[in-house]
Design goal:
This protein is α+β, with helices and mostly antiparallel strands and 293 residues long. It contains 6 helices and 15 strands. It is globular and about 50 Å long. The structure holds manganese (II) ion (2 copies). Residues 87, 89, 98, 100, 190, 278 line the site of one manganese (II) ion (MN).
Length: 293
């Protein structure tokens, strides 16, 4: 036995809940609905089930690919023509399911299908002995067949207990070699297809942070931030979750002091559209079990 039964069960439970909540959340993405309302309702579903959000619900618009979520008091409204990535992480006893889908409020059907087909092509290849670079090649080929570019500087990633990003790295483009897939590995595959440049850059705006060092803080707002971060056990949190005022000063101080890591919003070029599809899987003797399907 490669993986303890209780661990397997926790991964499966997290996967089933993530699948259910993601579908519900994606169903709330409708023209005229507010982003903040949709995010809060979706995040509440996870905590009401007694599970932990592995990271704040990511909702990224149009050319944004990842790491956006509702700001405090966010007034953004979903509009006709938008292409919305909804990316959810659920942890049960620390074991994570990470899954995403794209909601099309415009005419982006082929772009949505490109990332979905790429994800399925990669999943079909997963088994012990395959190199991660081969999965990247399948993703790139499927996206290019649909007439789009893969985002080359975003990748899938291994998952571990209370660890959102670990080995192996699963590229979204063809690469020589890479990690060799082994039975018992748990990882997320997440192709992004784009009409833009095929590379994402960091925006100035940051909504999501992660605590990376344990040191005391003196500023009252920094103390509140660390109180918000503490029960997360190193998992990312949202600026929106921190109560009180002067939060941004506290956040920038903690980043400067090496206590927090910032995850800026990641976007392709203005005017472009990016789609994403993501599942988490466990590698088995013969292939894999997708926990979030
Ligand atoms: Mn994700
Ligand atoms: Mn992921």
């Amino acid at each position: 036995m490669i993986m303890d039964d209780a661990v397997y069960d926790a991964y499966r439970e997290a996967g089933a809940l993530a699948r259910r909540v993601l579908r519900h959340g994606a169903g709330l993405v409708k023209e005229g609905t507010g982003l903040l309302e949709m995010v809060e309702a979706t995040e509440a579903m996870v905590t009401e089930e007694g599970a932990l959000l592995a990271f704040p619900l990511n909702v990224s618009f149009n050319e944004a690919a990842a790491h956006d979520t509702a700001m405090p008091g966010d007034e953004r409204i979903f509009a006709r023509g938008d292409l919305i990535k909804v990316d959810l992480g659920v942890a049960v006893d620390g074991y994570i399911a990470d899954t995403a889908m794209t909601v099309d409020l415009g005419d982006h059907g082929a772009l949505v299908e490109a990332s979905r087909a790429a994800l399925e092509a990669a999943i079909a290849l997963v088994r012990p002995g395959v190199a991660a670079g081969e999965l990247g090649a399948a993703i790139q080929a499927a996206i290019e067949e649909h007439g789009y570019k893969p985002v080359g500087n975003l990748t899938g990633h291994g998952l571990d207990r209370y660890k959102q990003h670990t080995r192996p790295t699963i590229p979204n483009i063809a690469m020589a070699g890479g990690a060799v897939i082994e039975e018992g590995m748990v990882f997320a595959i997440e192709p992004f297809a784009t009409t833009g440049s095929g590379r994402v850059s960091e925006a100035a705006r940051v909504e999501i942070y992660q605590q990376i060092a344990a040191r005391p803080a003196r500023l009252p707002s920094a103390k509140r931030i660390l109180e918000t971060a503490r029960p997360r056990r190193g998992l990312p949190f949202s600026r929106r979750w921190v109560p009180g005022d002067k939060v941004d000063i506290g956040l920038s101080t903690l980043v400067r002091n090496g206590i927090l890591h910032a995850f800026p919003v990641l976007h392709d070029v203005p005017g472009s559209f990016v789609s994403q599809a993501e599942h988490t899987l466990i590698v088995t003797e013969e292939g894999c079990e997708v926990t979030t399907r």
